[in-house]
Specification:
Largest sheet: 8 strands, mixed
Number of domains: 1
Order of helices and strands: HEHEEHEHEEEHE
Structural class: alpha/beta
CATH architecture: Alpha-Beta Complex
Distance between the termini: 40 Å
CATH class: Alpha Beta
Number of strands: 8
CATH superfamily: YbaK/aminoacyl-tRNA synthetase-associated domain
Strand content: 15-25%
């Protein structure tokens, strides 16, 4: 049963974590976790331990990419991986309509089934990773291996 004190988006994430057999639980924080720096500060961890979820469109199809908060996305590598000529960042409305989450709170779990998740293999070297849980104030802990499993994510190198 989900924690009813959580925001509905965070409840959606928590329910997805439970269904997937994840070990971590959603934490709703008083401070913003909308950016990797905000999240690291609120959690008392290194920025590298934040798994930031970025949404991009390739041929107008949304994809969520999770990479370390310390890394930058290589859009050319992403386009090559997706086998599209070009990728672009969606606006806030496109992010919400394609994922159901707001910018700053996009979670790689609880997504519509047609939104694939890509996970940068640089996260494999980290222990605990903190990932957005549906709002700019909610996160959950996981590991690289668990994140790949619970998202059915496709690993690859997507960082510069």
């Amino acid at each position: 049963m989900s924690d009813t004190s959580l925001h509905p988006n965070a409840v959606r994430v928590q329910d997805a974590l439970i269904r997937a057999g994840a070990r971590g639980a959603v934490r709703q924080l008083a401070d913003s976790t909308a950016t990797s720096g905000d999240a690291a500060l609120a959690l008392g961890v290194e920025v590298a331990q934040i798994g930031k979820s970025l949404v991009f469109l390739g041929d107008d199809r949304a994809v969520v990419i999770v990479l370390s908060g310390a890394d930058r996305l290589d859009t050319a590598a992403l386009a090559a991986f997706l086998e599209v000529a070009k990728v672009r960042r969606p606006d806030a409305q496109e992010v919400r309509s394609s994922t159901g989450y707001p910018i700053g709170g996009v979670s790689p779990v609880g997504l519509p089934p047609d939104v694939p998740v890509l996970i940068d293999d640089g996260l494999a070297d980290l222990g605990v990773i903190w990932v957005a849980a549906g709002t700019p104030n909610a996160v959950f802990p996981t590991t690289y291996e668990e994140l790949v499993r619970i998202t059915s994510g496709r690993p690859g190198r997507f960082r510069v």
